[in-house]
Design goal:
- About 35% of the residues lie in helices and about 15% in strands.
- It has about 325 residues and is an alpha+beta fold.
- The strands form 5 sheets. Strands 2-1-9-10 form a 4-stranded antiparallel β-sheet, with no helix packed on it.
- The chain is extended, with a radius of gyration of 28 Å.
- About 20% of the residues are buried.
Length: about 325
Amino acid sequence: MPRRKPYSKVNKTNQIRAAHVDGMGDVVFKGIQCLNAECENFIFVRSNSIADDYEVVCSKCGYKIESGGETKFYDYTMDVEVDGEIVKGEPGVFSIFHDDYLREAQSYKYCIVCNTMKPLDFFDRHSARISGRQGECRLCKKAYNEIKNGTRLTDQHREAAQKRRLYLDLAGVARINSKQIEQRFGYCCFNCGKDLSQVTKNTEKPLDHTLPVFYLWPLTTETATLLCRECNGNKSGMWPSEFYTDAKLRELSAVTGLEYSLLSGKPTYNPTALANLQRAEMVDALLTKYAPYIERELIPLRNRILRDAGIDFFKFASNISPIWVKKADERYQP
C-alpha cells in the first residue's frame, strides 16, 4: 500500500486584507486609458456594469467614454491619382469608436492575497468560480505552495539564484538580440503557435535555452527558442526530445542550426563547457568566485559531472583544499 502524503496545514495570522479587495475575488474589470489626450488616468470599470447603454466617466478629468460615442484624433483628406492627375478627396475625421475601444480592452481582477490588480491571464483557470479564474494570482499561489511543501526558505531561493549564475558562467553568456529571435519564429510560440506579436512583457514571451543550462548549454541569438510563458514553464529543464514531437524537433533543427541528432538524442553536456572545466585557470576562478557555495553548489556539480561525464574538475584546480576534495569524495555516489 502506498504511503499517504504527509498532512500539512498553513496557519495564517496577521494577514493583510485591503478593504477595497474584500469580496472582489471574482469581480472582473476592464482596464482602459482615458481617451482624453491631455489625461494620463487609467480607468478600471467592472465588466458586468458594461451594458448596451454604458457611460464611463474619468474620475480625473471628467471625460466620458460612452456607448455609441467616438473620440476624434485628427481631420484628413486623401489625395487620389486619376488619369495622371491628383484629385482631392472628400475630407474626413479619424476617430476611435468607444464601443470598439472598450471591447478590445484587457481584463483584470484583484488578487485576494497580495491585494493588487493584475491582468486576468496572471491567474490560473478555475471553472467553478464566477470569474473562471483562481482567487490568488500565480505568484502568490507559487509562494504559498512553496511554504506548504517546505521549500520556501530564503536561503534556498538565494542558492537557486546562485546555482543558475554558476551554470551560466560555465555555459557562457552572450549578448542576445531578442528581436531577431522573435522574427525568426514569426512572433509566435514555437510549441503551441500562440501569437506573441502584441505581447510587450518579456515574461510572457520568454526565450528558452533550447538545450538546458543544467547541461551547461548557453543561450544565444542563434539557438534560442521563442515560447509563450506556459510552454516555457512546461518545458523547464527538459531536453528537447523529452518535450517536442519528432516533427517539431526537425523544424527546431532547421530554425536554430542545432543538429537534429543532438536535439532528438539523450541529454548531453556542452563539450565546450566540459573542456573549460579541465583548464586550471577556469576552475581556480570558479572556486574563488563561488567560495561561499563550494559545499552547497560546487561539490554537487563536481559529483554530477564526474558521474555523468567522467570528469573530475577538482583535479584541475591548483588552489583547492584537500578538505573540499575529501568532502566531495564522501558525498559522491556513482
